[in-house]
Amino acid sequence: MTLQNSLYQEAVTQPYKEIDAGKKEQVEVMFDQIAPKYDFLNHFLSFGIDRLWRKRAVKKLKPFSPNKILDLATGTGDLAIAAIRLKPEKIIGIDISGRMLEKGRLKIKKKGLERIIELQTGDSEKIPFPEEEFDALMVAFGVRNFEDLNRGLNEMYRVLKPGGTFVILEFSSPSYFPIKQIYSFYFFKILPQIGKMVSKDSSAYSYLPESVDVFPDRENFLGLLEKTGFSCLSFESLSFGIAAIYTGIKENYNIVKKL
Ligand SMILES: C[S@@+](CC[C@H](N)C(=O)[O-])C[C@H]1O[C@@H](n2cnc3c(N)ncnc32)[C@H](O)[C@@H]1O
Q1: Mind listing the pLDDT tens digit for each residue in 208-234?
Q2: What are the tens digits of pLDDT across the range 141-167?
Q3: CA–CA separation, 128 vs 121, rounded Å?
Q4: Whose CA is nearest to atom 23 of ligand 1?
Q5: How far apart are CA 116 and CA 9, in angstroms?
Q6: For labelling alongside 18, which of 59, 111, 149, 202 has CA 20 to 30 A away?
Q7: 146 lines ligand 1 (CB under 6 A)
Q8: Domains in the chain and their CATH numbers?
């Protein structure tokens, strides 16, 4: 375990502090609980910007024309659905929350996309696929919820084909006045209240800002990705630093050797 990751592991925050269960179990219970209201709250609390962020993330994969894509922590499948515009043969979404997946499957069926998008129960820290299976990987607002971030990143590396690409969309904390102050007030004071009222879960929307707060900052996260083995790493800051898109590739060492 790297120092950066060990510091992150110590700072790990869990949704239900009063319950004696691991983070993964708690995250699963939490998302099962909020699944009926998840999509509504996502769009409402972000003023619809989450849709633009996902579109932007998907666009990063366009130059690579991936055929087989894995969407990790797919939830209700919004990123997988957004990735349809890449015209892949197959998109597989995995998630640990059965209720989130149920919602996602309904949406996919309504849109007539069942032949291309398939949602399965699966843990991103123990991905149920063999090595080098996918041309591209995507994760939106998922890595922050992993119990063991290092293990999740290593698993991503394992299932990506050499030469394959990943895109990670995640919240980050803006660092400049006055966005930092406005964001903190909204994220820590307003959002948890609305989230609690609508979802009826007292912890889920307090866990959201807390989990963003303890997640590695951009430089440290890029460091973890590099340590995992990914290269050509880059990130783009979105909406004044409220979110960020990380991209990178798994180097094709055979081609590099030939060159
Ligand atoms: C904030 S939601 C994001 C869902 C979706 N990607 C989106 O863009 O709306 C986070 C999702 O991560 C899932 N999750 C957390 N840890 C996971 C893990 N180890 N493996 C698979 N899914 C996980 C949760 O169940 C939840 O559905």
Answers
A1: 999 999 999 999 999 999 999 999 999
A2: 999 999 999 999 999 999 999 999 999
A3: 9
A4: 73
A5: 36
A6: 149
A7: yes
A8: 3-12+20-258 (3.40.50.150)
